[in-house]
Amino acid sequence: MSKIALITGATSGIGEACAHTFAQQGYNLVLLARREDRLAKIAHHLEDKYAITIKQVFADVRDKESLTAALEVLPAEWKKVDVLINNAGLSQGLDPIDKGDTNDWDIMIDTNVKGLLYVTKIVSNWMIPNQSGHIINIGSIAGKEVYPNGNVYCASKHAVDALSKGMRIDLLPHGIKVTEINPGMVETEFSVVRFKGDEDRAKKVYENLEPLIADDIADAIWYVVSRPKHVNINDMLIMPTAQATATIINRTP
Ligand code: NDP
Ligand code: 8X3
């Protein structure tokens, strides 16, 4: 059987781009997300185009019980996952700490931190018997710096940074690689989700600069995954050329 990559958040943006890249490389895929129609459409397109096989997992990474059930029901041969891309994540709102919506905080922490942990626990236990595997955690520049009003989103991505380091230590005896990929601004549905459907506000984030696109990140992830067995890239920070830090951006009208 071909190699298997399990990608969370595969219905959009970086996760969808990774699905294309790994399908093109001949991987069979386990694709996980909540939006069933979108996931089915992407999966059918990739199966037809690249003659690979895809298992669709409709699950919310925040819901421990149903997530576990949806993953554990996979046939044994599909649990031989070579690459896990922990990509599902989001930001909600951009408010100072005193004005933040506590529901937004719950959603970010439950998705970006706890959801990533739940998936990792399940899949690392599938990797351990094989004494191999590669876990890619999608962090962010927001996991390396804190910017105004980014408070809880930044905290959730700093947690991904710490967890990536912790996982690398704990999974070392099992030959499992752990890499953290930290993008700067990537134009995806991220800002539309952050601003709860306000497309105009979302567009302004990328105004007068050339942001990264999702394929730039998928390309970097493929580079990391395709290194020789004895090489691991621990951490990668990838920025648009026009972005020096989270907040220092060269906008040229
Ligand atoms: P998108 O909004 O385009 O994609 C997010 C994906 O995550 C969707 O497929 C969505 O699928 C999935 N998702 C969200 N919540 C859940 C959930 N509870 N359970 C399962 N799947 C979920 O954004 P990006 O592609 O930009 O984001 C991907 C990752 O990259 C995130 O972790 C984000 O924090 C990170 N990132 C993004 C940057 C950017 O500038 N865009 C920069 C740095 C990091 P569905 O709604 O169908 O469940
Ligand atoms: C997404 C990029 O700069 O909005 O992680 O935090 S940013």
TrEMBL record:
Family matches, as PROSITE patterns: ADH_SHORT
Protein species of origin: Pedobacter ginsenosidimutans
Keywords assigned by UniProt, alphabetized: Oxidoreductase
Name under which the protein is recorded: NAD(P)-dependent oxidoreductase
InterPro entries: NAD(P)-bd_dom_sf, Sc_DH/Rdtase_CS, SDR_fam
Family: Belongs to the short-chain dehydrogenases/reductases (SDR) family.
GO molecular function: oxidoreductase activity, acting on the CH-OH group of donors, NAD or NADP as acceptor
CDD domains attached to this UniProt entry: SDR_c5
